[in-house]
């Protein structure tokens, strides 16, 4: 079974339907036994819906490059 830490790493892929059937099964199995992760997934769904309502923002290329560099070095 997945750990809570693994769940937080996989939640985006889960919500976007990008997990393999095996990982999705393991994810859902954990949700069935862990109320904290069920709450976390519920909160993530709320956040995704709220963020989806925001208008798109144009990010200047230099800013995007700086952000991507930060992510890559993380």
CATH class: Mainly Alpha
How many E-type strands? 0
Assign the CATH architecture: Orthogonal Bundle
> Would you tell me the structural class of the helices and strands?
mainly alpha
> N- to C-terminal separation?
27 Å
Percent of residues in β-strands:
under 5%
Number of distinct helices: 4
What level of helicity do the residues show? over 70%
Mean pLDDT: 95
Helix and strand succession?
Answer: HHHH
How many domains comprise the coordinates?
1
Quick one: biggest sheet?
none
| Unreliable segments of 5+ consecutive residues | none
CATH topology annotation: Arc Repressor Mutant, subunit A
Rg calculated over all Cα atoms: 16 Å
Query: Can you tell me the overall shape?
Result: elongated
Key terms:
74 residues; Arc Repressor Mutant, subunit A; elongated; mainly alpha
What do these coordinates show?
- 76% of the residues lie in helices and 0% in strands.
- The protein has a single domain, classed as Arc Repressor Mutant, subunit A (Orthogonal Bundle), CATH 1.10.10.
- The chain contains four helices and no strands.
- The model has no long low-confidence stretch (mean pLDDT 95).
- The chain is mainly α.
Short overview:
The protein is mostly helical and 74 residues long.
Q: What is this structure's SSE topology?
A:
Elements: H1 4-15, H2 21-33, H3 35-52, H4 61-73
Helix pairs in contact: 1-3, 2-3
């Amino acid at each position: 079974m997945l750990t809570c830490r693994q769940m937080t790493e996989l939640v985006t892929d889960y919500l976007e339907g990008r997990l393999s059937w095996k990982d999705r099964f393991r994810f859902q199995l954990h949700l069935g036994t862990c109320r904290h992760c069920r709450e976390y997934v519920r909160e993530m769904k709320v956040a995704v819906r709220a963020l989806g309502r925001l208008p798109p923002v144009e990010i200047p290329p230099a800013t995007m490059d700086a952000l991507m560099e930060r992510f890559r070095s993380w």
